[in-house]
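Ticket #4471: structure export looks truncated?
Reporter: QA, pipeline team
Priority: medium

Steps to reproduce: submit the single chain below to the structure queue and open the exported record.
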Amino acid sequence: MHKLENKVAIVTGGSRGIGANICTSLAAAGAKVVVNYTSNHQAAAEVVAKIESDGGAAIAVQADVSQVEDVRKLFDAAEQQWGPVDILVNNAGIVHYKTIEETSDEEFDRVMQVNAYGVFYALREAATRLAEGGRVINISSSAVRMMLPTYGPYCATKGAVEQMTRSFAKEMGKRGITVNAVSPGPTETDLFMDNNDQDKIERMRSLSAFGRLGKSEDMGPVVLFLASDDGGWITGQVLPVNGGTA
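Actual output as written to the record:
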């Protein structure tokens, strides 16, 4: 199936975990994919190699989404390689598990810069550079709804992403662009597994209706649906993809 044939996609944070699966899912459907990474060039190169070995097209582009000029560079790279961008997936993010009391100004600034400002910069760029009839998919988190201690600063960033999703959808509708968010629950990625102890991982697993953590491959098909023509009448929505966790 080539639902996205000749479409050009940018996936921020595309070198690992959920982002990597989104990249391969979009490429398998025919999209040409910019695999964004911040520092792990080897991981991004492996995603590109997998896509190319499966007959797809991809390039790896280093950019820190918390920097305005780097976000512009992502769009520049896509346009220079293939032409206007059709699909933007804002997936890049960092975690922060501390109480509000324990969180320093610098820590709060950093998680906001990557998770919230990074999405804001990309949306602002997309407002003028995304192709007519394009697609924006932001990655939020079901933690926003779960009232978890030590998640306050992180959830503040993802709450901001969800509100920007709703507003941007209204702003972009006149150009036929849909804007939605996908909200994963606890997912078995390096980012999650490396930043939580086993007791917490087991508690999170038990919250799912299926008694398991999510997997990266649970997310790619949902993003693919929203990026395709099939998702053309859905906009301004936050879709929980969490196995009944929240």
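Status: closed, not a bug. The export was complete when the record was re-opened. Leaving a note from the reviewer for reference: The mean pLDDT is 96.
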